[in-house]
Amino acid sequence: MVLTIFAFILFLLLALHDLVHFPPLTNIKDLKKAESESRRFTDVAINGLCGLIPLLLMLWFGPHQPTWSLRTIKCIYGLLLLGAFLSCWVPYFFGSPEEHRKAFEKFKNTHHFLPARGENIVPNTFHVIMHIMMLVCFILSLSL
Q1: Which of 85, 97, 140, 141 has its CA 20 to 30 A from that of 51?
Q2: Domain regions of the chain by residue span
Q3: Which residues 6+ apart lie within 8 Å of 96 measured at CB?
Q4: How far apart are CA 91 and CA 15, in angstroms?
Q5: Residues 6+ apart with CB under 8 A from 135
Q6: 27 with 20: CB under 8 angstroms?
């Protein structure tokens, strides 16, 4: 039940963070300037599905999850966490190419609380919250 609640919150964060303006956590105006409408909706569809599939599996099978469903839930949360780690946390601590840093400029007018590390990207507060939710969902899924 706890995982289902966290999964629902993570789904909402993944599905809405590129569409809904939550100042100062998101800045849709800058995002619209940096990315096309079709790119944003593609990102929303992919991210939303990554949050929706485990949630639907949990709701459909309840406490009696088949093995394939448990593995799917764990894999999706693990891959989401790996993607967050590689795209945000490795570049934050160790740096990244200029092209990768430029892609993160669309988040410069959002709230950040982590200290700058040279020219490395700094994950904004919204992404930190979302990544913590991914970690919580992954850890809770391991107990299934």
Answers
A1: 97
A2: 2-142
A3: 90, 120, 121
A4: 24
A5: 81
A6: no
Token pair for 144: 């299934």
Instruction: Count CB neighbours of 87 within 10 A.
Output: 18
What is the rounded distance in angstroms from the CA atom of residue 110 to the CA atom of residue 78?
Answer: 27
DSSP code per residue over 57-92: HHHHHTT---HHHHHHHHHHHHHHHHHHIIIIIHHH
Q: Residue 134, exposed/middle/buried by CB under 10 A (0-12, 13-18, 19+)?
A: buried
Q: Which two tokens stand for residue 39?
A: 């790119």
Residue 9 one-letter amino acid: I
pTM: 0.94
- CA dist., res. 73 & res. 70, Å (int): 5
